[in-house]
Design goal:
single chain; about 10% helix; nine-stranded antiparallel sheet; mainly beta; eight-stranded antiparallel sheet
């Protein structure tokens, strides 16, 4: 579970995170520890925007069970309810592809840059189903648990983004469509029905890819880190990203959505996943040897430690 249950804040980390990782990283760290909702006022400017019930549909998803048999409830942990323990949150979309309003729930954040990195501790609770429509703008490519937009224009070869379908059958599908054909890259995630710490490194400027790293699998036996690469998603194959229009296309400056956020029932799915924490570093695509994005308390400690060392050195 989350090691520090407190309100997350924006932290400028150009120096600190660079020192923690390869020495070249930069950007702003946005940290969402799931003891508060991603849109909580305590997050200040870092707060995401909530759509509908955020974690799910209030009419269906916030009870211990819903008519479709999903275990619940959606939302932040509360004693005696959540299956995942304190400091976690559960995101549900149990739409049956007929009730549009049942789908319009989630959180989103824009202005992340054309390249950015998402580190998160996450697990998939459902195998991911959808209707039988395939291809086209109303097809399965639109079904999503999350969505990413790089802020590039929505045309080949700019690599605009994709939807993410999280499955307890140990995979993430990265999807969109080109013309009337669904485009999909499946990345295998070991033991995804249990907690996994993953990195999504979004490069919307150079390689036009999303690289998925397993932060629980450090292949470097020494003091450093070299996290296992699970797969690479080529965004140039996707003409239209299956993300909410709220991410704003090229005007978004790069964005992330949690949950389906769409009132079109054919763009939703039976989705059920949990987060312990999620952290974003803006404006940079971190790699295999970069340290896990730190939570704000860690960054503050490093900054204060560096200042103290500099002062002691100055007295020398």
């Amino acid at each position: 579970m989350s090691s520090c249950h407190h309100a997350a804040k924006w932290v400028w980390v150009a120096a600190a995170v660079g020192a923690l990782s390869s020495g070249t990283a930069f950007g702003l760290v946005l940290s969402y520890e799931m003891d508060v909702a991603p849109d909580d006022a305590s997050l200040g400017a870092a707060a995401m925007t909530r759509v509908g019930g955020g974690f799910g549909d209030p009419a269906y998803d916030f009870d211990d069970s819903n008519p479709l048999g999903f275990s619940g409830p959606a939302g932040l942990y509360s004693a005696g309810h959540s299956l995942d323990g304190p400091g976690t949150a559960r995101f549900l979309d149990t739409d049956n592809s007929t009730t549009a309003n049942h789908a319009a729930a989630g959180f989103y954040k824009t202005g992340l840059g054309q390249s950015f990195t998402i580190d998160m501790k996450v697990k998939a609770n459902w195998s991911v189903n959808g209707d039988n429509v395939t291809g086209g703008t109303d097809g399965t490519a639109g079904k999503r648990s999350m969505g990413i937009h790089t802020g590039n224009t929505e045309s080949i070869p700019n690599g605009p983004g994709c939807s993410l379908r999280l499955s307890s059958n140990n995979f993430i599908d990265f999807q969109g469509w080109s013309g009337s054909a669904e485009q999909r890259t499946r990345v295998t995630v070991p033991n995804f029905s249990s907690w996994r710490t993953l990195r999504l490194s979004v490069d919307g400027t150079t390689t036009k890819t999303i690289k998925v790293y397993d932060l629980d699998d450090d292949t470097d036996p020494g003091a450093g880190a070299s996290y296992a690469l699970l797969g690479t998603v080529d965004l140039t194959l996707i003409n239209k990203p299956a993300v909410s229009a709220l991410l704003g296309g090229a005007s978004s400056g790069g964005g992330l959505q949690l949950n389906s956020i769409d009132a079109n029932p054919r763009r939703t799915l039976y989705s059920d996943f949990s987060l312990d924490w999620l952290r974003i570093q803006t404006d940079v695509a971190l790699g295999a040897t970069d340290a896990v994005i730190p939570e704000p308390a860690t960054v503050a400690f490093v900054l204060l430690g560096a200042i103290g060392l500099r002062r002691r050195a100055g007295r020398g």
